[in-house]
Write a structure and sequence with these properties.
The complex is a heterodimer. Chain A has a six-stranded antiparallel beta sheet with strand order 1-6-2-3-4-5. A five-stranded mixed beta sheet of chain A has the order 10-11-7-15-16, covered by helices on one side. Chain A is built from eight helices and 16 strands. By secondary structure, chain A is of the alpha+beta class. The two termini of chain A are 52 Å apart. Chain A has two domains: 129 residues, Alpha-Beta Complex (endopeptidase fold (from Nostoc punctiforme)); 143 residues, Alpha-Beta Complex (Ribosomal Protein L22, Chain A). In chain A, helix 4 packs across helix 5. Chain B has a single domain, classed as Non-ribosomal Peptide Synthetase Peptidyl Carrier Protein, Chain A. In chain B, helix 1 crosses helix 3 and helix 1 packs across helix 4. Chain B starts with a helix and ends with a helix. Classes of the chains: A alpha+beta, B mainly alpha. At the A-B interface, helix 6 and strand 16 of A face helix 1, helix 2 and helix 3 of B.
């Protein structure tokens, strides 16, 4: 679908641009444009009570903006309802309320009239932006003494960890995997049982659902989870990073989404988002 | 979910929405005004609502953007939906 300032026919989908958004309507004639609400200008917001489907003339709809007409591609032309049915559907909804900015807005209305299916590309675009956002969450915690092996998944990793001879390293590993489980749950709503964990030939554990990196140093554990390759390091050898005030330790993150890193402190099972005040 | 946990998750969303720098984490409270203090654009308000739906698995089915002047108002709405 293209949008052009072209001549309109009855049953056309039209729109005007208002700031970052568009206001949509169904063109019937110069004297009749049917839309879900007035164009949401500051002036109209003040005088409009409940937002309803209404008919105005083209000047009120345009409120001084350029009116664009939807030019449908061949597939869309096949899918669209006959023009007279579009007009009939729009007229049948005059006076209807129930406006909702996300789920029942002016774009849903025109798509329902033209294609018989209420949808909003503006909302879908923003939702895609959220779902595809860079995720790089770093969870930091002080490693407690005497961590048990309850709940560590997968069983093969649990066995590997339990076979570690050094008590300190075994304790670290148990805690890191428990912290990874908490991080996966919080950042990706995924239990490790569903994280498609597998051990690569080199011995590194990976997930099919997200990228992760584990590190322990000086009694502190760090787990990074991301939707791109990520590495987290701790301590003076970690290189350029941010220095946590308490416990004082440098945290370095690298990877595609490192710039979007968010840091969380985990203490007694509670997770707190850390801001700049927590770092030197 | 406690109010402070909801607030923390909202701060994460605001960070993703690019509502200011990471200092937003330290400065945002329930009294923070979404438009006046954070200067959220209408696109960012939409982003906040959609991300909130995704994170908390709720649906803004009965409200408009303008009904949330402050961060605390959003927290209260989510709290009500989750209870």
């Amino acid at each position: 679908m293209k949008w052009e300032p072209a001549a309109c026919q009855p049953g056309d989908m039209i729109r005007i641009r208002l700031g970052s958004f568009y206001h949509y309507g169904i063109f019937v004639s110069e004297d009749e444009v049917i839309a879900f609400g007035l164009p949401p200008t500051a002036e109209n917001r003040e005088k409009e009570g409940e937002v309803k489907v209404l008919a105005t003339d083209i000047d009120v709809f345009a409120c001084g903006r350029i009116v664009e007409t939807a030019v449908l591609d061949r597939g869309e032309q096949k899918r669209r309802l006959p023009r007279e049915e579009t007009v009939a559907r729009a007229r049948a909804r005059l006076g209807e309320g129930g406006y909702n900015i996300l789920h029942n807005n002016c774009e849903h209305f025109v798509n329902a009239c033209v294609f018989g299916q209420a949808r909003c590309e503006q909302e879908e675009d923003v939702r895609r932006r959220w779902l595809n956002r860079p995720v790089c969450d770093i969870y930091l915690a002080v490693i407690p003494e005497g961590v048990d092996d309850a709940g560590i998944y997968p069983p093969r990793r649990k066995s590997e960890i339990n076979a570690i001879a050094s008590e300190r390293l075994r304790n670290e590993a148990r805690f890191l995997w428990k912290l990874l489980a908490a991080a996966a749950k919080r950042s990706f709503r995924t239990d490790l049982e569903n994280a498609e964990l597998k051990r690569k030939l080199g011995g590194k554990w990976v997930s099919g659902k997200f990228f992760f990196s584990l590190c322990a140093e000086n009694g502190v554990a760090a787990v990074a989870v991301s939707n791109a390759d990520v590495t987290v390091s701790l301590g003076d050898e970690a290189g350029a990073g941010r220095t946590l005030k308490s416990p004082r330790i440098t945290v370095a993150v690298s990877g595609k989404n490192a710039a979007a890193a968010k840091y969380f402190r985990v203490r007694d099972g509670a997770v707190t988002l850390m801001g700049d005040a927590n770092f030197e | 979910m406690k109010r402070n946990e909801i607030l923390d998750k909202l701060k994460e969303i605001l960070l993703s929405a690019d509502a200011g720098s990471s200092a937003v984490i330290d400065s945002v409270t329930e009294d923070t005004h979404l438009l006046n203090d954070l200067g959220l654009s209408s696109v960012n308000m939409l982003y906040l609502m959609i991300a909130t739906e995704e994170v908390f698995q709720i649906r803004f089915d009965d409200v408009g953007v303008g009904e949330f002047p402050t961060v605390g108002d959003v927290v209260s709405y989510i709290e009500g939906k989750l209870s």
